Amino acid sequence: MTYIIAKGLLIPFLGTSLGAALVFFMKKDLDYRIQKILSGFAAGIMVAASVWSLLIPSMEMASDRGRLAFIPAAVGFCLGMIFLLILDKTIPHMHLDESQEGIKSNLQKTTMMVLAVTLHNIPEGMAVGILYAGWASGSAAITEAGALSLALGIAIQNFPEGAIISMPLHSKGLSKTRSCWYGILSGIVEPIAGLLTIILASFVLPVLPYFLSFAAGAMIYVVVEELVPEMAEGEHSNWGTIAFMLGFALMMVLDVALG
User: Fold this and answer.
1) In angstroms, what CA-CA distances link 214 with 79, 113, 131, 239, 247?
2) SS3 for 26?
3) Count of C-beta atoms within a 10 Å radius of residue 92
4) Cβ proximity of 150 and 256 under 8 Å
5) From the centroid of its chain, how far is CA 131?
6) pLDDT for 126-151, tens place per residue?
7) Are 146 and 53 in contact (CB under 8 A)?
8) What is the dihedral sign for C-alpha 126, 130, 132, 136?
9) How many whole angstroms from its chain centre is CA 69?
10) Taking the CB of residue 221, how many other CB atoms lie within 10 A of it?
11) Can you tell me the distance from the alpha carbon of 23 to that of 180, in angstroms, rounded to the nearest whole number?
12) Which residue from 26, 139, 154, 254 lies 20 to 30 Å from 197 (Cα-Cα)?
């Protein structure tokens, strides 16, 4: 069981690392159409994962409440979005314009970019950890395959995210090696957050439905605040829309087929 959980926690981190490594094989500048496709695909993955891997299991675990089974899902979802909103407003945002030099405090732009993505990776790691904690506890609503499907979905989502970090850093003048390491480091928090969640499982399990939906809310916040604007603004937004469709369908198939 320990090996299965360790593998599951590391899968999303592997996705980020492989994505960051793309900087060694691609041109210096990331084509805006490719960025739209990557953002749309990641958004589709995260929305489907939030519904099938987090919100639905949350309601299933609260089924003893009858028609009120939606309460943990609704409350946790809203709290997750509010939590990310507060953090996003507190910590410097990823998309600073060149004209916003005065608000970047003492952090360098590269540090802010990595910090923002690292912040967004924490709830994803928690989500994987929560599912594996639920599976290890014997919960009938959560299966090993279901936890694995979420880990795979987040890894697929992290692949373009790693590239979105390393490529812009390289285009701003950092070496390919350093840019890759920044991308990799942005994902290291995921297995750490997942492991801490499992360690604290005895405290988490009684309120697991709330934690599942909390993670879903945090992930949807990232989609709405970061990924959808990236895929929709400017020309050729249909590229991002089609990628969203493919990402959503892929994650849905993974979760239903494996879960």
Assistant:
1) 6, 24, 13, 30, 22
2) coil
3) 19
4) no
5) 14
6) 878 888 888 887 766 677 887 888 88
7) yes
8) positive
9) 26
10) 22
11) 7
12) 254
